Amino acid sequence: MSFKGIHSKFVTLLSLLLTILFVYTAVSKLMHLDTFQLRVERMPYIASHAPLISWGVPFLELIIAGLLWFPKYRKTALYASLVLLGLFTTYIIIVLNYSNSIPCSCGGVISALGWKDHILFNSAFMLMALLGILWSNKRYKFQSHQNTVQQGKPKT
Questions:
Q1: Which of 57, 72, 86, 105 has minimal Cβ neighbours within 10 Å of its Cβ?
Q2: Residue 96 belongs to some domain of the structure
Q3: Exposed/middle/buried for 58, CB within 10 Å: 0-12, 13-18, 19+?
Q4: pTM of the predicted model, to two decimals?
Q5: 84 Cβ contact partners less than 8 Å away, ≥ 6 residues apart
Q6: Among residues 129, 29, 135, which one has the least CA distance to residue 77?
Q7: Residue 101: left if φ>0, alpha if ψ -120 to 50, beta else—which one?
Q8: 87: domain range?
Q9: DSSP at 2
Q10: pLDDT per residue over 92-136, tens digit each?
């Protein structure tokens, strides 16, 4: 199997895992929207933006999950995944260091994680997004190099 095929398959696998994460968390938040909004209203530093966050985050997660399946937008979606997960992880770290308490606004199985586990979980998915970005770049460079080599060959 060529490197192009390997990178492409890994990027697809990482996109699938990120899609599962974002669809699961978005659906969980939307199914329990009132609870999610109440929890966000109790969170330090962002409580005043609770209505926007409680609607915006799940829809953003669904948009990113959808964009991961369009090759034209996949790299953008991987960057968006990295940024969204990075913002949330940074927020958790800041609140854990500078606030007395932080209520969990997560849904489903993820809400059972402790905060350190949550940071590790998010970091693992951030790593997946970063690898997807890097492997997308390698695939693009491989295709560009392959096109250049083919164009440079004399026709027989």
A1: 72
A2: yes
A3: buried
A4: 0.81
A5: 60, 61, 64
A6: 129
A7: beta
A8: 3-148
A9: -
A10: 888 888 877 666 666 667 777 888 888 999 999 999 999 999 998
DSSP 109: G
Contacting residues for 138 by C-beta, under 8 A, at least 6 apart: 3, 7
Amino acid, single-letter form, for residue 54: S
The 10 Å Cβ neighbour count of residue 93 is 13
- Dig out the tokens for 41 from the structure: 């209203």
Tokens of 59: 């829809």
Which amino acid, one-letter code, is at 58? P
Tokens of 92: 């958790």
| 30 token code pair | 């939307």
Task: Name the domain count of the chain.
Answer: 1
Q: Name the residue among 30, 24, 39 with its Cα closest to residue 108.
A: 24
Residue 54 is assigned to a structural domain of this protein: yes
Q: How many CB atoms lie within 10 A of CB 3?
A: 11
Tokens of 129: 């997004």
Q: Is residue 126 in a domain?
A: yes
Q: For the chain, what's the residue count? A: 156
Residues of the chain where predicted confidence (pLDDT) is lower than 70? 1-4, 101-108, 138-156
Q: Is 154 contained in some domain?
A: no
